[in-house]
């Protein structure tokens, strides 16, 4: 199979793990190709996805009753999250040790890391774990804890966990809100505690979010923008946002 076709099919298969269906028009926009190109790709290859009535769906004959369910947030702003993920994934290098936060954007980072790169991943999210387990050169460490079905997050139940003991080269941190006055916030306090621990143990903390989070304020305060070494968004930040004091 042509490598470009294979890459497009893999991206579509990943997207269909995040949602039940994807309109052909939206898929073409995300992949930056024509609708006809996607039709040809699907007709020319054998994969787990098919085109039905203008929508790309997982092949009904291959569906499992144990199919993993994801949160509502992960179905939103797909194109924007793919763009953020592509930029962030390009930062991953051989021999990196990387913390992957929870949040609906992080799997889009993990999915676009080239399979050829050898790296170690530390994560506490089942969604991201399911993506990383398909990376052949990824050494994967899943942090244990109390599982939350609401956000597929494992909250540590011990004081001294892998997050406390492993020093990473990079940490991809997600946000549910990024506001000029209230800073970076997320939905839950237990998520904030893990984010702060990961940021304290990394050489480079990288904040990733799509533009729908700009101007939003959630209940749990993470920190200010200047506490991050790098910020990745799919659009330039509005005037007034800054990483410096």
UniProtKB/TrEMBL annotation:
InterPro entries: Carb_Metab_HTH_regulators, DeoR-like_C, DeoR_HTH, NagB/RpiA_transferase-like, Tscrpt_reg_HTH_DeoR_CS. Keywords: DNA-binding, Transcription, Transcription regulation. It comes from the Bacteria. The keyword Transcription regulation applies. One of its GO terms (molecular function) is DNA-binding transcription factor activity. Residues 5-57 form the HTH deoR-type domain. Pfam families: DeoRC (PF00455), HTH_DeoR (PF08220). NCBIfam families: PRK10681.1. This is DNA-binding transcriptional repressor DeoR. It comes from Rodentibacter pneumotropicus. The lineage of its organism: Bacteria, Pseudomonadati, Pseudomonadota, Gammaproteobacteria, Pasteurellales. The gene is deoR.
